[in-house]
Amino acid sequence: LPEYILLHLGRRRGRERGDRHLRKSRFEKMEPSVVLDKKSRRRETKEEEPMACDRAVFDELRRLRKEIADENGVPAYIVFGDKTLKEMAAKLPKTKEQMLGISGVGEVKYARFGEAFLRRCQELSDELPVSE
């Protein structure tokens, strides 16, 4: 089996103050089947579930996120992540309390970006046909 060299941080002999140095050790490579199993498990957890919200509503919220991100000079994921937007699109909160109940929306993010999203969610809620 191939070997890999690992570096460990340890104490160097002869040093009084406890200065550290790197030392090498050998490590055997894991069996290929184990590595493949770990990778396949990782892929399974990354697969997305079907959206439980309207795609058009989600896209509107993404557009708003992009506008806000551009205005603030930050990447879009800093405003809100896709998971948060999907939950927002599914629930369409109408109050601050409902908005704060969404995963990824806390007091700080609500203070910075929440009002704009809350207004947009209310507008989208009014535009959607009422199902009985």
Brief descriptors of the model:
single chain, 132 residues, 55% helix, alpha+beta
Task: Tell me about this structure.
The chain has a two-stranded antiparallel ribbon. Helix content is 55%, strand content 14%. Helix 2 (55-72) packs across helix 4 (82-91) and helix 2 crosses helix 6 (107-127). It has 132 residues and is of the alpha+beta class. The protein has helices spanning 32-46, 55-72, 76-79, 82-91, 96-100, 107-127; strands spanning 3-11, 20-28.
What's a quick, concise take on this entry?
This protein has 132 residues and is α+β, with helices and mostly antiparallel strands. The protein has helices spanning 32-46, 55-72, 76-79, 82-91, 96-100, 107-127, and strands spanning 3-11, 20-28. A hairpin with an 8-residue loop joins strand 1 (3-11) and strand 2.
Number of helices: 6
Low-confidence stretches: 43-47
Shape: elongated
Strand content is 5-15%
Rounded mean pLDDT is 77
Q: How many β-strand stretches?
A: 2
Q: In oligomeric terms, what are we looking at?
A: single chain
| Fraction of residues in H or I helices | 55-70%
Please give the radius of gyration in angstroms: 25 Å
Report the biggest beta sheet as strand number plus sense, adding barrel if it closes: 2 strands, antiparallel
SSE string, helices as H and strands as E: EEHHHHHH
Strand order of the largest sheet: 1-2
Structure class:
alpha+beta
N→C terminal distance: 65 Å
